[in-house]
Structures are given as structure tokens and as C-alpha cells.
Design brief:
By secondary structure, the chain is mostly helical. Helix content is 72%, strand content 1%. About 2% of the residues have low confidence.
Length: 328
């Protein structure tokens, strides 16, 4: 895995995962490679799903081919030729670099334990399912709104809740029952909600951009009423739903035994809680400018998390303090 470790330490991974890259770097070597590979493969499928340079029908075909390749059921599709050398307005250069390496990344499966390969295959299959459903749902010429809370719950699980299960699979695969003070089934449920909460935060953060593109993940609203009205009337409910889902993260973090794994697990939750706080105080104009946690604040959270990780429940306490500070 030396070649892949070089990939992990390179600029490419850092350039496509500003915050998650920090978690990957912190991870113990026992699971760092598998977690990074799972992320990069999912990032490649996300590149295909998101590019507006190719018609949705072609993107669906490519995603299907990528899913079959990850599952070991078919060769890797020649999607780089399909996408071409597109940049602004289409696929960015760094994303083309990801696609060009997709085949070589799959070759790492030959050198990994079967339980890691199976965990990666499950999480990537789930992510592609969510991306495929998304493309099919929003590929028309008219604005589309999710029809039910159930659709939203399924989507957030497919693209992010599954990552909580993946993380749990890697932890138990590497450490057995010593990974956590809780039973595996409970950790999987907590991990699901943790991931779903983070994805729902992304949905709220990206709401103006998505609405302008004709997609709305907030179920049951009228997109013709305008983004400001929807945000003012409905966002508070969904921010509270984020908070409910994220509360699972504190329980998950406290239960993880290996210290470095606990810190890596906590960092996305700390950034998520901080983002939720910013969303709670953001007006419509601020939201349109895209709410995000500044890099210096991420570094501050990392420092506080590092020192908190030396106490058994220090990280969980730090996260709970951030979440309690959330203004609603």
C-alpha cells in the first residue's frame, strides 16, 4: 500500500476534501488507506454525477458502469474520454485527475483484506444509488421538490448515513469489540444519524444554489414562493432536525476507544456543529453568499479537539458544548 499512502499524502486528496482530509490524516494506519480509498472512489462518482458538461442520461450510464466496476462485475468504463477535457462550466481539472486515477485506485483492492474491500463496495454502491436517484429526480426542465420526509431521509442515508456505517465497519474490522464501548448494532444506528445530520446541514447550506438549479430537498414546499420565504418559514424546523440527528454524533464519539480514531471521528461533527450555528444566525443574503466555517476556525477546532482527545469524554463534551450553543 506504499503507492496509495503517497496518494493519501498528496495534494489531490487535500484539494477535494478540505475538512475530511484532516480526519483521514489523523486516522490510524490500520484503516487510513481503506477510508481514503472509499472517499476517493465516491468523490469520483460525485464528479460524474455533478458535471453539467454531459447529459444526465449519459451520466447515469457512466455511474452504472462505475458501480459495476467497483463491485468487480465489469471493467472500468471509459468515462474520461466521454467527459473530455472540460474545465470552467464543466468538470474542473482536479476532477479530471480523479477520474483518470479511478482504474488505478480499484487495483488497490488486490492488496487489501476482503473485509475492507467489501466495506468499500457497500458504501460506494449506496452513494451511487443516491446520486442516481438524484439525477433521475432532478433531470427535467421544471423545478422539482422532494415529495416526502421519507424521500429526504432515504437520500441523506444513501449519500452520507451509509458513511457512518462504513466508518463503523472499518473500526470493528480493525479492532474488533475493542473499537467501541457500545454494541456494533447501536454504533451503526448512531453512525447513520451522524452522517444524515451532516448531509442535511449541507442541504441547508446549499439551499439557494440548489433552488436556482431547480432542485429543492425541503419536502412539501412551493418553490415558486421564493427562496427567502421558504428559508424564513421552514429552515428553523430543519435546523432543529439537524441538531437531533447530530446529537447521535456525541454518543458515537464518546463510545470510540482508540484515541486517534476518536479524534478523527469527532472532527466532522465539530465542524458540522459550528456550521449549524452559522446557519442559525444567517439571513437570506448571507446564505446566498454560502455559509462556511473559516479555515482558521477549523484549525482552532482541531487544536481544541486534539487536547480534548486525551480525556475519555473530552471530545464528546466539546461537541455537546458547540451543539448547545446552537441558536435554534
Amino acid at each position: 500500500m506504499d503507492d496509495f499512502e503517497r496518494e493519501l499524502g498528496g495534494d489531490l486528496l487535500a484539494s477535494v476534501s478540505r475538512s475530511f482530509y484532516l480526519s483521514l490524516k489523523i486516522l490510524p494506519s490500520e484503516i487510513r488507506g481503506a477510508a481514503s480509498l472509499g472517499y476517493l472512489l465516491a468523490r469520483a462518482t460525485d464528479t460524474v454525477a455533478d458535471t453539467d458538461a454531459v447529459a444526465s442520461g449519459e451520466r447515469l450510464q457512466v455511474l452504472s458502469g462505475m458501480a459495476a466496476a467497483v463491485a468487480g462485475e465489469a471493467p472500468v468504463p471509459d468515462f474520461t474520454e466521454l467527459l473530455g477535457e472540460r474545465s470552467p462550466g464543466g468538470t474542473e481539472n482536479v476532477e479530471l485527475a480523479i477520474l483518470r486515477r479511478f482504474s488505478s485506485w480499484l487495483a488497490f483492492f488486490e492488496h487489501m483484506p476482503s473485509w475492507q474491500v467489501e466495506a468499500i463496495q457497500r458504501v460506494v454502491a449506496s452513494v451511487i444509488k443516491g446520486q442516481t436517484d438524484d439525477l433521475q429526480r432532478f433531470s427535467g426542465d421544471h423545478p422539482v421538490v422532494l415529495g416526502s420526509v421519507g424521500e429526504l431521509e432515504q437520500y441523506t442515508y444513501d449519500v452520507a448515513g451509509c458513511v457512518g456505517v462504513f466508518w463503523t465497519d472499518l473500526g470493528y474490522g480493525a479492532y474488533g469489540d475493542s473499537y467501541s464501548s457500545l454494541q456494533r448494532g447501536e454504533m451503526e444506528e448512531l453512525g447513520k444519524d451522524y452522517g444524515k445530520g451532516l448531509q442535511l446541514i449541507n442541504i441547508l447550506r446549499d439551499f439557494p444554489e440548489d433552488l436556482a438549479s431547480g432542485r429543492c430537498y425541503i419536502p412539501g414546499v412551493d418553490p415558486e414562493s421564493g427562496g427567502r420565504k421558504i428559508w424564513e418559514e421552514d429552515a428553523a424546523f430543519w435546523r432543529e432536525r439537524c441538531r437531533e440527528l447530530l446529537s447521535s454524533a456525541g454518543k458515537y464519539i464518546n463510545a470510540v476507544n482508540p484515541r486517534r480514531l476518536r479524534l478523527a471521528t469527532a472532527l466532522p461533527a465539530l465542524i458540522g456543529a459550528k456550521t449549524l450555528k452559522l446557519l442559525g444566525s444567517a439571513g437570506w443574503e448571507e446564505l446566498q453568499q454560502r455559509v462556511k466555517v473559516e479555515r482558521k476556525e477549523v484549525k482552532r477546532l482541531l487544536r481544541k479537539g486534539f487536547f480534548g482527545s486525551f480525556r475519555r469524554q473530552g471530545l464528546g463534551k466539546l461537541f455537546a458544548e458547540l451543539l448547545d450553543d446552537y441558536p435554534g
